[in-house]
Amino acid sequence: MKILKINMGNLSVKEDLVTKYKRLGGRALTSKILHDEVSPTCHPLGPNNKLIFATGLLTGSGASSADRYSVGGKSPLTGGIKESNAGGISGLTLGKLGIRALVFENIREDFKIVHLSKNGVKFDDAAPILGKDLSEAASWIRGKYGKHVAVWLIGVTGEQKMNLAAIAGQDKDGHPTRYNGRGGLGAVAGSKGIKAIVLDASGVEKNRPKRKEEFKKSLKQYHGWLMETPATSKVLPEFGTASLVKTTNALGALPTRNFSIGVMEDYENISGEKLREIILERGGEGTPTHACMPGCIIRCSNVFSDKEGNRVTGPIEYENIGLLGSNLDISNLDDIADLNLLCNEYGIDTIETGGALGVLMAQNVIPFGDGKRAVEVLKEVKAGTPLGRIIGSGAEVIGKIYGTVHVPTAKGQTMPAYDPRAIKGLGVTYATSPMGADHTAGQTVRAQIDHHSPEGQVEVSKNAQTVNTIWDHLGMCMFSSGAVQGRWDILADLVSAYTGEEFTGEDIVAIANETLKVEHSFNRKAGFTKEHDKLSEYFYYEENKGSKTVFDVNQDELETIGVERNDL
Amino acid sequence: MKILKINMGNLSVKEDLVTKYKRLGGRALTSKILHDEVSPTCHPLGPNNKLIFATGLLTGSGASSADRYSVGGKSPLTGGIKESNAGGISGLTLGKLGIRALVFENIREDFKIVHLSKNGVKFDDAAPILGKDLSEAASWIRGKYGKHVAVWLIGVTGEQKMNLAAIAGQDKDGHPTRYNGRGGLGAVAGSKGIKAIVLDASGVEKNRPKRKEEFKKSLKQYHGWLMETPATSKVLPEFGTASLVKTTNALGALPTRNFSIGVMEDYENISGEKLREIILERGGEGTPTHACMPGCIIRCSNVFSDKEGNRVTGPIEYENIGLLGSNLDISNLDDIADLNLLCNEYGIDTIETGGALGVLMAQNVIPFGDGKRAVEVLKEVKAGTPLGRIIGSGAEVIGKIYGTVHVPTAKGQTMPAYDPRAIKGLGVTYATSPMGADHTAGQTVRAQIDHHSPEGQVEVSKNAQTVNTIWDHLGMCMFSSGAVQGRWDILADLVSAYTGEEFTGEDIVAIANETLKVEHSFNRKAGFTKEHDKLSEYFYYEENKGSKTVFDVNQDELETIGVERNDL
């Protein structure tokens, strides 16, 4: 495997072997390269930031739910280190090309399509797809480069270097709807003039496990767990992530009306059950059970269709429902799907978008609950009007534009769909993760703990942060968590057999913890201190009337996470 | 002297003696109270911030150029401690009422007029003046409360809690044009529902020096210096601060086209000489020599009139010319006056406004050099349109909205009109002052040093920061600097005789340095580190072609300022 470095300023390419980093993949690799090579105080959109794509250690191995990849860079949204990972087939294809990491350096004004194949790298003018919706751009790319290629794309928002711009990868059916959503990394790509990356692995020899028999044995065990665990074999395939709506609403944690309260009166209209019912009822192109990666056993994704059965968009995730639905007081799944569709067409993070619209609704710029109006206003993002630019800047910046304290963020990033006053372990994650408010950086919603109590949350979040980093290192989906968590030795066998490097269960945990240290170290050098390990202040003094709680986890205890991980 | 505390939440009033703080005035007092009473991580617009008005130790003494006062609070623009001071008669009148500090606590939704007189505090509904231009609001106040009152006011921008909202005090002629401009303190006032503060000192006995004869003697000496020093007796009265245009242009430090270069081809059209020529030629209500405070010998202010001799606005300061003129590529003083007028009517900081418009011009939202269009666009701030809101958020936030690295700020605040690549001592001040980019926090333009050289700038800035803090403590205008600087013993005699407290020259210096420590300490607890002691990154790698320099002061040496002052 190699590391490919592309200088977008002069379009030069350099190839390194991964030698130094050979035990690192995914987030462990993006974060380590950022730590080693990027000045933490650089401007995220300036020439000194880098944008790094890296495959997980298991990506391409054939293990279920393990074809994920990471994108890393200094985030324009948080000002800190960022990693955002996704499934689909783009990371898989990068791995097929023998590339462990793809590092983009420098900036440029115009936009290029970067084409990677066994013949090397070429740069094409991106003008024909600038300003286009992502589905159209992806079609154009397939038309030009062949139906077999995989792509990464930024949308009109990335071209405009907006904070909520994401990077879209492609699912197994060719839709550019698998998202490196968080942290504004689409804007970093935009600053570097990367409109699209086309991955053509034709004619490349397949990666095979280094120790085939061992790998087969471990794989069987791993797949067996996935199939015998209810979450991965039944709940997620049937209801997808939206199965969480009922859970969080019952906890008073479903963000409603700009994170002012954690329950929604008509939550049943947006539940996973309702979503499944509608999709099945409408038939046609819709499906409640859809795999983003080939061979995934969990298949938590879905395709949502309209009343005529025509595909609208997909997937409708729990986060999308929480942020674009309840958070906006919208309880109509068709409206949510329309918003979701625009996010997918413009290349934007649904969470940050929901956060942005929520703050604007609380400021009476858009009426709460008015899905049609929200759709119209979101279209201004594409047009780049002043209001579109405002939405594109994300919730934290909008709070500054409108002078309001009611901004559901931590380290500048919008919270995912869990009110931290009601699921306090996630509050700890939001406050202490080097990633800012990000559930995938330390998900605690399924922990066996009283989520309303401040006790024990620091430990729960701290462990979850390590566990999530393990998935991000290996390229595994966090939904395998229920089946695999804690079985590190067997997982290590799987990784060892596939890569030929020796890993123990302890190694797997140690690399995750080391990665967190590397990230905390980067952030500290970027100017973060324990004072930044906080949520927006209102969560501490305004009660969530759904859960009847404020966020009251002991701050000194909470800060121990950052302190411990700051000793590099 | 007393400290008056007003809780704007429940409109309750508490009175304290200044005992604990009796040797502190102005900035020394606002910063100390903030340090002692405000949580550094609080939201600047939330209930836990305070807004403090404090008179300088010499305010009201009759000493020339010494009736200034400070306003302090945690800044929504920088996220750190803020002090902004101004002249005029409002601080003077607060002093007459026997109030050393006026502390506003808590927040409220509606707006009040806070009326202070010998009868105490009363609160009136501010509805009749909401949304009005400041000149109209001030007239209304005089009509209601009498022509003899002094006022502080916020404009439509403060009502909207915009980052560039300032607090306007009143000059000796009743115009609300003396500004606590920097740091968005008008937004803090807005968050607390303070639309206006009316100060009625009628029937109050005059403050007199505690030791009259000693005071008279020191005062004579001090006034003698002011009258014999060319800067204070000739240059500033004749040309005002605009005398600097030629100086900075010659240094390549006149910010031009969004701080991209430091020289302007037709700088002579906006020089102090040209300004004087136009004002004298037009006659009528205009004057090139105007005192903002009664009895001021320096009289650096001016009144600008139109071709018919009717007052347009005043003062046209160097900073206004640099930020609203050359920085926008506008070289027509009438256009600059029109922009200046709108700033005065809307209650906004001219520096931050010029910074905001400059970034927008560089993004092609407004054409560079188009004064008429700039005026039209600035009117959107009053209307609160999305573009108006964008302008109101200030340059740093606009940089995030438009995804650009070309933002002339330090700690979130727009730089005043000196390119830090060409006057490097000011670059050090911008980077290291607890106030962010602020020339009045450590002005080095008149230092005898090669301004293009990186050598010696740290020492020059460090000393200037102490000296500026001395003025801010005593309520003195920094323009007395040329005459008084270094003569601390005589100044101490003046203060001792007036207040009855004993001060030596060393005490005066020590209090200033202690104040800086208090401020650094606050900022450190707010999350600032040495990594924040930087300018926008582009100043380090993009050459100012006017001066042929980048900002290259040794960073380690520069950071010693913050380190030394961080030992509280």
How would you portray this structure in words?
- Chains A, B: Its cofactor is tungstopterin; [4Fe-4S] cluster.
- Chains A, B: InterPro entries: Ald_Fedxn_OxRdtase_dom2, Ald_Fedxn_OxRdtase_dom3, Ald_Fedxn_OxRdtase_N, Ald_Fedxn_OxRdtase_N_sf, OxRdtase_Ald_Fedxn_C, Tungsten_al_ferr_oxy-like_C, W-dependent_AOR.
- By secondary structure, the first copy, chain A, is an alpha+beta fold.
- Chain A has a domain at 2-199: Aldehyde ferredoxin oxidoreductase, N-terminal domain (Aldehyde Ferredoxin Oxidoreductase,  A, domain 1).
- Helices cover 40% and strands 14% of the residues of chain A.
- Chain A has helices at residues 26-37, 90-96, 134-145, 156-159, 185-191, 212-228, 230-239, 244-251, 272-282, 318-324, 333-346, 350-362, 371-383, 386-392, 394-402, 424-432, 457-474, 481-484, 488-499, 505-526, 538-541, 555-564, and strands at residues 2-7, 12-17, 51-55, 69-74, 81-86, 99-105, 112-117, 120-125, 150-153, 167-169, 178-180, 194-199, 287-290, 301-305, 311-313, 409-410, 413-414.
- In chain A, the strands form 5 sheets. Chain A has a 6-stranded mixed sheet with strand order 2-1-6-3-4-5, with helices on both faces. The first copy, chain A, has a 4-stranded mixed sheet with strand order 8-7-12-9.
- In chain A, helix 1 crosses helix 17 (457-474), helix 6 packs antiparallel against helix 19 and helix 16 (424-432) crosses helix 17.
- The longest helix of chain A has 22 residues, at 505-526.
- The radius of gyration of chain A is 21 Å and the shape is globular.
- The model of chain A has no long low-confidence stretch (mean pLDDT 96).
- At the A-B interface, helix 5, helix 14 and helix 15 of A face helix 5, helix 14 and helix 15 of B.
